[in-house]
Amino acid sequence: MRISVTGHLNIAAETVPIVRAAIADLIAGLPDVVGISCLARGADSVFAEVVLEAGGQLEVVLPSRDYRDSKVKPDQLPQFDALVARAATVRVMDFDSAGREAYEAANEVLVGEADRMIAVWDGKIGERAGTGTVVALARERGVPVDVVWPNGAMRG
Asked: Which domain of life is it from (predicted)?
């Protein structure tokens, strides 16, 4: 079962445990889980950790060659590097710099290579290439989407 993730970067710290538990419940008991993630701060990284903790494989899709250096904040680097090191595969999209086109290309992979998608999403439509846009793209393409936004969840 190939499951990708989209979600908010800014989930509040106190929200992380309930989001983690909700994701764990969704993938519990699924055979041979492969999680596909861009490893952004927040939802993407929490999802990746849960997949690995459940014994699944992690496939990383980085939007650009400079993604780590330009987009990963210093306090997130240890988590990001640890997840990359544990990934079964790391694919880097053919863009030098992270930007709208790079994110849209990565989102195409997240939607196009998944059997299901988990969206850590408060349901609000934001910027293009954001969580709401990715959810809409998945639904248009017939990819089932499980929205995770437990009671009490907040953006930081």
From this structure: Bacteria
